[in-house]
Write a structure and sequence with these properties.
heterodimer; A: about 550 residues; Cytochrome C Oxidase, Chain A; 15 helices; disordered C terminus; B: mainly alpha; 4 helices; about 0% strand; binds protoporphyrin IX containing FE; binds copper (II) ion
């Protein structure tokens, strides 16, 4: 996204991209759209780093005794892969990129409520990221992204503290983003935009922001206590110092289970927009979808103990957490059924964003259903700590959240860049990603069921075939991700100019120019109709 | 939005109150109240928190929305503590096979 690609065209109307030039105009910008692009470049950077770690792991696992690295290095690879992908890619991806860009446009405002905090959040994110990268270079960390004590506090002699500080710092950027969205959605909606006329993406961002604001401080405190124990031997988690290791897991998962919803809720919001647009129908059960986002945000805080069934947590607490985990599956299922019902009798077209959205529905469903296997007390004893878990959360986080992110990027790319991307390549890319993804992760369900533990650098020879399949799939997936990267960069300069609303979509963001002017709207729009007024009989205005 | 102008005196009083309570915390730490050590410390901390929230953060004059958000914060903290305690308080209920029981006393009665 270098400024060199943004040459002024002779007749180009002024927009947020050509309003100003030079690095200062980017690094000191208060424009939410430019900050979104800063985030887009940075999360892509971290995605590539995290992806490289994954590639190294998959190459290593081609052979049972390990083909590439020392076991110690392998431990560092999966740890950094997880930390980078979760804290530096997935959590900021949709909220900080698409959310930053779209929330003000969708509410019909000129910017977020606190533009300076918004820029600050990006700088905080970068500082946290630098800490983490530094520690990767300075020796790495091998605790797993979960930092479980007492290993992390007492035994590991890697860069635990530096990484914990990095993640700690980055947490504040997520709090600021959430705060900004909550205030903007409450206070800055355009006249006529009542809560139940808001696009579902806004509801999803609102629910996500609640989690960010209420959950992230707990992660910060937990990591702070960890660092305190590591540096000053204050007894909190380590039994040797009179602490309780399970307390760490309670605190960690109080944030980190809701955090999985920070990753998936925004993607669900994106999918609601795309499905309605490419089925050309009002979304089925609008209010239920909106409320289910909020229900997920709240219920999602009450299930964390399902990560601790076999750790020595009380069985009675386990019972409660298991039951609540089954309950939280209901709002997710509601969404899936509503999207499917929206498709029913819709006039569906299979543009690239729609392919990603349909992929999301299928893969998320598989990820969510296998979550129920893990939420059952008895089956979890067998599946816990195996590749089944790795498959479960990748189906949700990669099959779900990353597909949602890419779908959103493709859907709003003409709005963001003012240009189109090659349609055929985009569809090919989406299909390759879908195939590569399944080839990579489906075998892992089987491996886990057969008993292959996660986080090991070696495995018994009988598991080789499935592991090679998985590694082969990772190659396909990697190629799949390269394709959009290439044509999107290409399209910034050479893509055909897009009209303001190429998909004929509803929503305020499509009512302004593409790319939008710095102030978003010449006049603050007035909303007179429901969201998703696609079908002719429902469209009151046009 | 518009908040009444609070006289400076109020802030000074609250500040002095906070200092006083801090001294009290320190003082109480020297007296052994048995099980009430924690209770006393928490009660003082709670009053200090109320002073800060109501006066310094101006929640006394804030809108209902701000108050809801404030209450939500405390409610979530309560959830964290309650569900964590649901583990600690019931761990020792677990019927263990006889052969296990002799080893260690329950850590969290
Ligand atoms: C919606 C998005 C979801 C995401 C992003 C997600 C992600 C994850 C992740 C990252 C882990 C592994 C944590 C680790 O040990 O490193 C995990 C484990 C687990 N997930 Fe999910 N999950 C989601 C939904 C669900 C649902 C809906 C359920 C059940 C109702 C569920 C049940 C579980 C359980 C029980 C475990 C722990 C398994 C074990 O450690 O034995 N998940 N999930
Ligand atoms: Cu969970």
């Amino acid at each position: 996204m270098s400024t060199a690609t943004l040459e002024p065209r002779v007749h180009a109307p002024r927009n947020y991209l050509n309003a100003d030039y030079g690095w200062k105009s980017w690094l000191f910008t208060l424009d939410h759209k430019r900050i979104a692009l800063l985030y887009m470049v940075s999360v892509s950077f971290f995605f590539i780093i995290g992806g490289s770690f994954a590639v190294l792991m998959r190459i290593h696992l081609v052979e049972p005794q390990g083909a590439l690295v020392q076991p110690e290095t392998y431990n560092k690879l999966f740890t950094l892969h997880g930390i980078v992908m979760i804290f530096f890619f997935l959590i900021p991806s949709i909220p900080a990129v698409l959310g930053n860009f779209l929330v003000p446009l969708m509410v019909g405002a000129r910017d977020l409520a606190f533009p300076k905090l918004n820029l600050l959040s990006w700088y905080i994110y970068i500082v946290g990221g630098m800490f983490t990268l530094y520690s990767a270079i300075a020796g790495g960390v091998d605790t797993g992204w979960t930092f479980y004590t007492p290993y992390s506090s007492t035994y590991s002699n890697t860069q635990v503290t530096a990484v914990a500080i990095g993640v700690f710092i980055t947490g504040f950027s997520s709090i600021l983003t959430g705060l900004n969205f909550i205030v903007t959605i409450h206070k800055m909606r355009a006249p006529g935009l009542t809560w139940f006329r808001m696009p579902l993406f806004l509801w999803a961002m609102y629910a996500t922001s609640i989690i960010m604001v209420l959950g992230t401080p707990v992660l910060a405190i937990t990591l702070f206590l960890l660092a305190l124990e590591h540096l000053f031997h204050v007894g909190i988690f380590s039994p040797a110092l009179g602490g309780d290791p399970l307390l760490f897991q309670h605190l960690f998962w109080f944030y980190s289970h809701p955090a999985v919803y920070i990753m998936i809720l925004p993607a669900m919001g994106v999918v609601s927009e795309i499905i309605a647009c490419f089925a050309r129908k009002r979304i089925f059960g609008y209010k239920i979808i909106a409320f289910s986002s909020v229900a997920i945000a709240v219920l999602g805080f009450l299930v964390w103990g399902h990560h601790m069934f076999v750790t020595g947590q009380s069985v009675y607490a386990g019972l409660i957490f298991s039951m609540l985990s089954f309950l939280v599956a209901i709002p997710s299922a509601i969404k899936v059924f509503n999207w499917t019902s929206t498709l029913y009798k819709g006039s569906i077209s299979y543009e690239a964003p729609m392919l990603y959205a349909l992929g999301f529905i299928g893969l998320f469903t598989m990820g969510g259903l296998t979550g129920l296997f893990l939420a059952s007390l008895a089956t979890d004893v067998h599946l816990n700590g195996t590749y089944f878990i790795v498959a479960h959360f990748h189906y949700i986080m990669v099959g779900g959240a990353v597909m949602g992110y890419l779908g959103g990027i493709h859907f709003w790319w003409p709005k963001i860049s003012g240009r189109k991307y090659p349609d055929m390549w985009a569809r090919i890319g989406a299909v390759i990603i879908f195939i590569g993804f399944n080839l990579t992760f489906f075998p892992q369900f089987i491996l886990g069921y057969l008993g292959m533990p996660r986080r090991y650098a070696f495995y018994p020879a009988e598991f080789q075939v499935l592991n090679v399949m998985s590694s082969a799939g990772a190659t396909v997936l990697g190629v799949g991700y390269m394709i959009p990267l290439i044509y999107l960069i290409w399209s910034m300069r050479y893509g055909p100019i897009s009209e303001p609303n190429p998909w004929g979509a509803t929503g305020l963001e499509w009512k302004t120019a593409s790319p939008p002017p710095t102030e978003n709207f010449a006049q603050i729009p007035v909303v007179t109709e429901e969201a998703y007024a696609y079908a002719p009989e429902e469209a009151a205005g046009d | 939005m518009s908040q009444p102008i609070v006289p400076q005196k109020t802030y000074v009083m609250v500040f002095l109150g906070l200092i006083g309570l801090t001294i009290l915390t320190t003082g109480v730490a020297f007296i052994d109240l048995g099980p009430f050590n924690t209770v006393a410390a928490l009660a003082i901390a709670f009053s200090k928190m109320l002073l800060v929230v109501l006066f310094f953060m101006g929640v006394r004059h804030s809108s209902g929305l701000v108050r809801i958000i404030l209450v939500a914060g405390f409610f979530w903290l309560a959830l964290l503590i309650a569900f964590t305690m649901s583990d600690y308080r019931t761990r020792s209920w677990t019927p263990a096979p006889d052969s296990w029981s002799s080893s260690a006393p329950p850590t969290h009665p």
